[in-house]
Design brief:
The chain is built from 8 helices and 2 strands, in the order H-H-H-E-H-H-H-E-H-H. Strands 1-2 form a two-stranded antiparallel ribbon. The protein is an all-alpha fold. The chain has one domain. The longest helix is centred in the C-terminal third of the chain and has 23 residues.
Amino acid sequence: MNDLIYGLVTGAIFGFLLQKARVIRYDKQIAALRLMDMTIVKFMFTTVLVAMVGVYLLKDLELVKLSIKTTILGGNIIGGLIFGIGWALLGYCPGTSLGALGEGRYDSIWGIIGMLTGAALFAELFPLMKRTVLTWGNFGKITIPGILGINHWIVIIVMVILGVLMFRFFEKKGL
């Protein structure tokens, strides 16, 4: 039960931050897809960087145990294409469609219906996909530090440096 409460609190905080960053706005979503406004890219990359530091710090302090998922190219590519097409057609990704609904933008309901339909289809088709799509390009449980044979903090530091450089570039270009 505590996990559900933590998930609810974390989701509410993330939704609040999405709204405050204005990344649930339709115009921001479309501008990001057209590579004209990198607000969403900056927000999400910041989220990834903070998560990388937090998760590995908790791991190193032995407060959490990582459960690495299997890297399967077939599922990632097909899932990514479906996600991208849905985002491009609707102008919202799943998280931002829920935030947009919270702001009273009812056009986002179509994305939520699509999300729920996609989840139901995935559940129904999972036995078939387990034998097909989810076997294509199965690389097992891999991580970038594991592939490179280096400490995870080296990868994190490099990613943070790249993030800062990317943010500076975007700011210089007015993106």
